[in-house]
Amino acid sequence: MSFFKFLFRKSEVECPRCLGKTFVDWDDIRRLNKLLKWTPAPCAYCYGTGKVPKEMLSQVPVDYTYLTIDLPESEMERIKEGNEETLEKGRMRELFFDNLIKFAEQHYLNSRMDAECIADLYLSTENESAQFSVERKNLIQYFERVIKLKKSELN
């Protein structure tokens, strides 16, 4: 590292999302309350380095749902820079997931519907111009995870 890079480098801290291990695992997902919203993967908060600039902690919440490793790098950078339009898109996506989970739980608990029936009902009511859409196969798998989690909470 050159002398100038050393002098002007940003102060970094251990990544609070992955706890410095570069990978978000199920323990991290539970700790950050992101079950049904994340799966284990390389950490998008530190981009798999285990360290983040101190300033990032005040710019992007550690548990910001939309910041995942499967986003294009340009989208990740807009989030980290605090781009309001991108942050709002992320808030809308989280709201979408919250409502999708509630929809599945309600129909599972109140009508004893299975994942396939819930998916068919959801897709029959989904607006064609919906901001977020999900393929039937993926929706069924997602609803199966919601039901499995709900069953474990009830036991």
Give a verbal description of the structure.
- The termini are far apart.
- It is built from 7 helices and 4 strands, in the order H-E-E-H-E-E-H-H-H-H-H.
- Helices cover 54% and strands 6% of the residues.
- The longest helix is centred in the middle third of the chain and has 28 residues, at 84-111.
- Helix 5 (84-111) packs across helix 6 and helix 6 (115-125) packs across helix 7.
- The strands form 2 sheets. Strands 1-4 form a two-stranded antiparallel ribbon.
- It has helices at residues 3-8, 26-31, 54-59, 73-80, 84-111, 115-125, 136-154, and strands at residues 12-14, 23-24, 41-42, 51-53.
- With 155 residues, the chain is mainly α.
Class per helix and strand makeup? mainly alpha
User: Number of DSSP strands?
Assistant: 4
Helix content: 40-55%
The helix count comes to 7
| Main β sheet profile | 2 strands, antiparallel
What does the radius of gyration come to? 19 Å
Return the string of H and E elements: HEEHEEHHHHH
Shape: globular
Mean pLDDT score, rounded?
90
Determine the strand fraction and express it as a percent band.
5-15%
**Uncertain segments of ≥5 residues (pLDDT<50)?**
none
What strand line-up does the widest sheet have?
A: 1-4
In whole angstroms, how far apart are the ends?
55 Å
